[in-house]
Amino acid sequence: MKKALITATTAYMISQFNIKDIKRLIDCGFKVEVAANFENPGPLNQEKYNLLIKQLNENGIKYFHIPFSRNPISKDNLKAYFQLKSIIDSGNFDLVHTHTPIAGLLTRLIIKNKSLYKIYTAHGFHFYKGAPILNWLLYYPLEKLMSKYTDVLVTMNEEDYQIAKNNFTAKTVKKINGVGIDLDKFQSIGLSQLDLFDELKIDRTSFLVLSIGELNDNKNHMTVIKAIQRLANPMIKYIIVGTGVNYSKYQEYIRQHRLENNVFLLGYRDDIAELLKTTDLFIFPSYREGLSVALMEAMASGLPIIASNIRGNKDLVIQEKGGILVSPESSEEFASAIQKLYNDSQLMSNYGEFNVSRIQDFSNTVVDKQMYEIYNLYPTK
């Protein structure tokens, strides 16, 4: 039987994005193994971690802990290189599919001279229009160099696709419509039974604005918090779902500026579909994205969108048709966009209906077809 290895920096990546790839490879006749950091799995709570391990075990997937670090200069990545090299050297793999910059770099360094099929998925290059110059100096040369040792380079947005196609040397460059989402999960839920008004002890006529994402600088929730502060409208409630290093920082800012009745940090939630059905507006203010699952899920739920005008978001949200794209640095632009939609329920409804139609092209069914075509490029012997 053919053997395939999937590598990613964290177990979170495997859980959120690669379970589908495992199934697809099995369907294509491969025995699949997985390598990632399982001891520091990223923003994955214990319940989700246990579910991942259960899924791997039930499908007979052998998995290896590799001490990858998301910090490119961490000494752990040297250990990761040698541990992964040992696994690959003895694994007799026919195909390796690697994800994320660190795992992608180390994996391709190891397999560059091996006669196996090499696939790399870029979930959003760390260099992009408007990125810090350091990102271009560090990541661009490495990605360009390693593309030489890549049979298929998979991208998820137009900007990345054009960079890879025009500047890199991978044998084949493909663009897929993200990782795919389960449309039924978000479109068949009907009226939400979640009573968020009671949970948060807020007026039932409140206007609920939702963001979902890790609490870090890249996800940029602080700019929206400042927009809410600028609006000073007691009826507009900003709800943030996620965990991360900036939790205490946001909590302190909310306390200092007396925003406790306007901004709510809900932490980790497993009822995302219910939350999306309960809220009025979705805001996605990131500085860097590939093609966001959270944003696609909000669109599938029929919500109007306010998002940062960046790569990835622009591939999903059509300006003035499905939402409003604004500068990620400008709390004033976010505030203006929120106010515009708050004042116009018909416009919100139009945006939401458009998004439900548009997101059909990003379904599991569409992405399954795209990925099966990529895996079927594997040369039969």
Automatic annotation (TrEMBL):
Domain of life: Bacteria
InterPro entries per record: Glyco_trans_1, Glyco_trans_4-like_N
One function term, GO molecular function aspect: glycosyltransferase activity
Domain Glycosyltransferase subfamily 4-like N-terminal: 23-160
UniProt domain Glycosyl transferase family: residue ranges: 196-353
Protein name per UniProt: Glycosyltransferase family 4 protein
Species whose genome carries this gene: Streptococcus parauberis
Lineage: Bacteria, Bacillati, Bacillota, Bacilli, Lactobacillales
